[in-house]
Specification:
Number of helices of chain B: 7
Helix content of chain A: over 70%
Number of domains of chain B: 1
Shape of chain B: globular
Strand content of chain B: under 5%
Structural class of chain B: mainly alpha
Helix content of chain B: over 70%
Distance between the termini of chain B: 46 Å
Order of helices and strands of chain B: HHHHHHH
Oligomer: heterodimer
Largest sheet of chain A: none
Radius of gyration of chain A: 31 Å
CATH topology of chain B: Four Helix Bundle (Hemerythrin (Met), subunit A)
CATH architecture of chain B: Up-down Bundle
Strand content of chain A: under 5%
Shape of chain A: rod-shaped
Largest sheet of chain B: none
Chain lengths: 82, 245
């Protein structure tokens, strides 16, 4: 008969063991993980740069269009008033 | 009237300050405060701008549909201005979604794009509203274009529930981010981070909407003034230095 094991009681110990676990492959594995992080960072930086470039271009175009129209309104009002 | 203008200007300034304050907080949260996701690693942090951009795009499309319906019902030009501005912002934020999505997908799924339903339906939504903007840009009769565009704006919004529910209906690859009920979902810190980034994007959307509506009003004013000045006699031309006009 298989003895009953109280999993709840040994869970903290298993967790501590998992924390101390050394990845299989040692240095090679950690190098691969560093590579993956560097690659992820490149994608992340690319995405954020594109987001802010798109928003900045839109805001600039909006601001230019607003100023141009405000100038046009002023000129036309002057002409009507004069 | 000048008092009302002063209040609106103060509110607009407050909106700008709030947006400008919340965006750096959002960046801090997305890059530094939230934990790194175990399986996807740092690239998962794209999510803190991808999801809020998707919500802002949805907001743009929903507002466009609501104000288009109001325009068709009441015929008030002010509703059409808001619908047009919302559609433009919907396209802007949908563009961000369609760019950041594949950048996330490449390292996680191994491909930039798949025929997955959520991706395809989002692309369709973008195309519908780009069509809406092209229709408005090239129309000769403004009122007729506004009516046609309002119909496109309402029909196009029907794609939104398909996008939202596609992950459940077709069980695609796209992760389910927002779970309204039940367990699982996001880590509480990630959830808070997502809320802050979403709030900053909604504020940015609102600020841009106010500015875009002002642009529409100015354009109308220019049209009216040009119409009025067209009746005036041509202004006298200044004589050239050589005496030839």
């Amino acid at each position: 008969m298989i003895p009953a094991i109280d999993l709840a009681a040994i869970a903290p110990a298993l967790g501590a063991l998992a924390d101390q676990a050394v990845p299989v492959g040692g240095a090679a594995s950690s190098a691969a993980s560093a590579d993956a992080t560097a690659r992820g960072l490149r994608f992340l930086a690319g995405a954020y740069t594109i987001v802010w470039v798109i928003l900045a271009v839109y805001m600039m175009s909006l601001s230019i269009r607003l100023r141009r129209l405000a100038r046009q309104v002023r000129r036309l009002k002057e002409r009507l008033g004069g | 009237m000048p008092e009302r203008t002063a209040i609106l200007t103060a509110l607009e300034r407050l909106l700008f300050l709030l947006t400008a304050a919340l965006i750096p907080i959002g960046l801090y949260v997305a890059f530094l405060a939230v934990p790194t996701e175990e399986k996807m690693g740092v690239v998962q942090r794209i999510f803190y701008f991808h999801v809020p951009a998707a919500l802002a795009a949805f907001l743009g499309v929903a507002l466009c549909a609501v104000f288009s319906a109001l325009y068709l019902w009441k015929g008030d030009r002010a509703f059409d201005l808001v619908a047009h501005a919302s559609a433009e912002l919907g396209v802007l934020f949908c563009t961000i979604v369609l760019i950041t999505g594949p950048i996330w997908a490449r390292p996680v799924w191994g491909v930039w794009w798949t025929g997955e339903v959520r991706l395809t339906s989002t692309m369709i939504l973008w195309l519908i509203y780009v069509g809406y903007l092209i229709l408005r840009q090239n129309a000769e009769n403004r009122d007729q274009a506004a009516r046609w565009a309002a119909v496109v704006g309402i029909v196009g919004a029907l794609d939104m529930p398909i996008i939202y529910k596609s992950v459940e209906w077709w069980r695609g690859l796209h992760p389910k981010v927002l779970k309204m009920s039940g367990g699982g979902g996001l880590d509480p810190q990630m959830e808070r981070g997502l809320m802050i980034c979403t709030a900053s994007f909604v504020l940015l959307f609102t600020y841009l909407l106010v500015q875009r509506c002002r642009l529409g009003r100015l354009r109308d004013e220019v049209d009216l003034l040009e119409h009025l000045t067209a009746r005036l006699p041509d202004p006298p031309r200044r004589a050239a230095p050589g005496g030839i006009a």
